[in-house]
Design a protein that fits this description.
2 domains; Dehydroquinate synthase-like, alpha domain; Rossmann fold; 21% strand; binds nicotinamide-adenine-dinucleotide; two-stranded antiparallel sheet
Length: 355
């Protein structure tokens, strides 16, 4: 088992990464106390809820809320339902919310814990690769409104994060690969050694070998933790995490959020940003090819679908990150392992979208 301590405002919390952690009662005993509300979705609960029995056996007052799976569940009405469950459970300030699932469950349950009695413990137990390397670390919680995603929320650091990589064995291929895109992102923006490791271990990762998974999650979490801490001191570092995302959001919006998983769109967006970096002379020629090669080996598409109109995509990017004159602030690469935020001219972006 690897343990990474993540620092935040007032303290630190541990992220445990290992195999069999859902049933490792000693880890759970450090973080679960008071009355306990377990929140999960039907898919995850079907696979893994019963494994929590040993960890929670000694807890006398506990309840569970199992929601249907899917982004549509990240709503204020489900948030209210969790709050009402906590009231019915008689939860006091020492109560614990356990979020067992992907980023949807983590964000929703985390936000309920953030608000109930102005903040109770949440233990994040992420079960998708995306949630393990991203959503469960950093303390962002929230829900969607009809007017937009993540419009209401709060920062609420978890008390602990329990990553059992065994849970990844049941994840659908597309969800797994979409998570790998975010893993590659950490290497590309700030960790050249990790990027080289990913190039070497792509096959082991695709085969979901536990050692490779633990290493990939641990190095991703360590990178995210460093960015989040740095951002508390000097605002801006966190923006680097948006590498590939401005292009990716435009692509998701243009295709009505139906065609791509978030990570799939980000993979294409990262390749566009790398190509733009080369075009502007910021990154050496060959940067994009290397990034594209590793993403392809991990089973991710790296090209824009030809039928999308570059002008329409550019308009969507302008909406996403409006900026002075005809400039859009983007995360670009100096090289693989080093990123920079920079305003880019609309015409250059359009050229990349056309290529
Ligand atoms: N808080 C943050 O910092 C942050 C960061 C990134 C993303 N997010 C949020 O995360 C959400 C996306 O997360 P996600 O991709 O994990 O989505 P998700 O929670 O919807 O999970 C994706 C699918 O995988 C299923 N699943 C989960 N674990 C499984 C397992 N082990 N085996 C089989 N199936 C499993 C789920 O039931 C679901 O159908 C979005 O709402 C996004 O806004 C938050």
């Amino acid at each position: 088992m690897k343990v990474i301590e993540v620092a935040h405002g007032g303290g630190t919390y541990p992220v445990y990464i290992g195999q069999g952690l859902l049933t490792t009662a000693s880890v759970w005993a450090r973080h679960v106390r008071g009355r306990v509300l377990v929140v999960s979705d039907q898919t995850v609960a079907g696979h893994y809820l019963s494994r929590l029995q040993p960890a929670l056996a000694a807890i006398e007052h506990k309840e569970r809320v199992i929601l249907p799976a899917g982004e549509e569940q990240k709503t204020l009405s489900n948030w209210q339902r969790l709050i009402e469950e906590l009231v019915a459970l008689g939860a006091q300030r020492d109560a614990t919310v356990v979020a067992l699932g992907g980023g949807v469950i983590g964000d929703l349950a985390g936000f309920a814990a953030a608000a109930y009695m102005r903040g109770i413990r949440v233990v994040q137990v992420p079960t998708t690769l995306l949630a393990q390397v991203d959503a469960a670390v950093g303390g962002k919680t929230g829900v969607n409104l009809p007017a937009g995603k993540n419009l209401v929320g709060a920062f609420h650091a978890p008390h602990g994060v329990i990553v059992d990589v065994d849970t990844l064995s049941t994840l659908e291929d597309r969800d797994f690969r979409a998570g790998l895109a975010e893993v590659v992102k950490y290497g590309a923006i700030r960790d050249a050694g990790f990027f080289a490791w990913l190039e070497q271990e792509a096959d082991a990762l695709l085969a979901r070998l536990p050692d490779a998974l633990m290493e990939a999650v641990a190095r991703s979490v360590a990178n995210k933790a460093e960015v989040v801490v740095a951002d508390e001191r000097e605002a801006g570092e966190r923006a680097l995490l948006n590498f590939g995302h401005t292009f990716g959001h435009a692509l998701e919006t243009a295709t009505g959020y139906q065609r791509y998983r978030h990570g799939e769109a980000v993979a294409i967006g990262m390749c566009l940003a790398a190509r733009l970096s080369e075009m502007l002379g910021i990154a050496p020629v060959g940067t994009r090819d290397r990034l594209q090669a590793v993403l392809r080996r991990l089973g991710l598409a790296t090209d824009l679908p030809p039928e999308l109109d570059p002008e329409a995509l550019l308009d969507l990017m302008r909406l996403d990150k409006k900026n002075a004159a005809d400039q859009i602030r983007l995360v670009l690469l100096h090289e693989l392992g080093q990123a920079v935020v920079q305003p880019c001219p609309g015409n250059d972006i359009k050229e990349v979208l056309r290529a």
